[in-house]
Amino acid sequence: MKESKKRSEGVRLSVRIDDKMNEALTEIADRFGLSKSVLVRKAMTEGLEGYAEHKGLSAEQYEEIRNKC
Asked: Which of 14, 48, 44 has the alpha carbon at shortest distance from 57?
């Protein structure tokens, strides 16, 4: 009997994205031979590195980041 791959421990997170973002994620993931899940985890991890040293954001900084997404 074939052993199934165990998923690494973690928390499942669901997000909603629009069709345009989904198409972009699919195109990029396909280009690099990644699943969308791996691509999103990689983007989140690498994108959050810049914020890891910060203790918090001001309301203005938060709004600026929010408007970019």
From this structure: 48
pLDDT tens digits, 57-67: 778 887 888 88
Give which of 46, 45, 38 is closest to 7, Cα–Cα. 38
Tokens of 58: 């001001």
CA distance 50 to 11: 22
Largest CA distance in the chain: 57
Residue 40's pLDDT is what? 92
CB neighbour list of residue 65: distance below 8 Å, 6 or more residues apart: 57
pTM, whole model, 2 decimals? 0.57
